[in-house]
Amino acid sequence: MDAREFFVLAQELMQGHREVDYRSAVSRAYYSAFHACRTLLKNIPNLPGSIGTSHQRVIDELLSHSDKQINSLGNKLKVARDLRQKADYQLERAFSRYEASRLLSQVQKILSEVDDYLRSVKDNS
Fold first, then answer.
1. If phi over 0 gives left and psi between -120 and 50 gives alpha, with beta otherwise, what is residue 117?
2. Is 4 exposed, middle or buried (0-12, 13-18, 19+ CB in 10 A)?
3. Separation between Cα atoms, residue 27 and residue 95, nearest integer Å
4. Is 73 strand, coil or helix?
């Protein structure tokens, strides 16, 4: 399965009109970005073996990288994770369509940047 399928589902969920649709869209979009970033890390030479599935470890690996583009992805993924946690765990707080739309836009940027980076690695091989 391609992680971007989660993003497609997130976009479909945004067509709904309920708060649960927006919260679910954020969750699916975040996981799309998370898995794309894991794939990116697996394709960077000289990184330690398996990074596993720890969300914090993926973010930390991105944030600690010397390449500013990869470092920026770490910041964006962290913001996305924080909003996903609000959507998934803070049910007592209202969650708006606007918040979800902003996150989907951010995730779309993450996916595009990951694709660009992976393309450049492939072209330089």
1. alpha
2. middle
3. 12
4. helix
Q: Which two tokens stand for residue 97?
A: 């369509």
The runs of H, that is alpha helices, within the chain are 4-13, 19-42, 55-64, 68-89, 97-123
Instruction: List pLDDT tens digits, range 31-75.
Output: 999 999 999 999 887 776 667 789 999 999 999 999 999 999 999
**pLDDT, tens digit, for every residue of 7-30?**
999 999 999 999 999 999 999 999
- Closest among 104, 108, 92 to 27, alpha carbons compared: 104
Cα(72)–Cα(59) distance, rounded to whole angstroms? 10
Is residue 88 a contact partner of residue 22, using CB atoms and an 8 Å limit?
no
Output the pTM of the full model: 0.94
Q: Which domains does the chain possess?
A: 4-123 (1.20.120.330)
CB atoms < 10 A from the CB of 86, how many?
Answer: 16
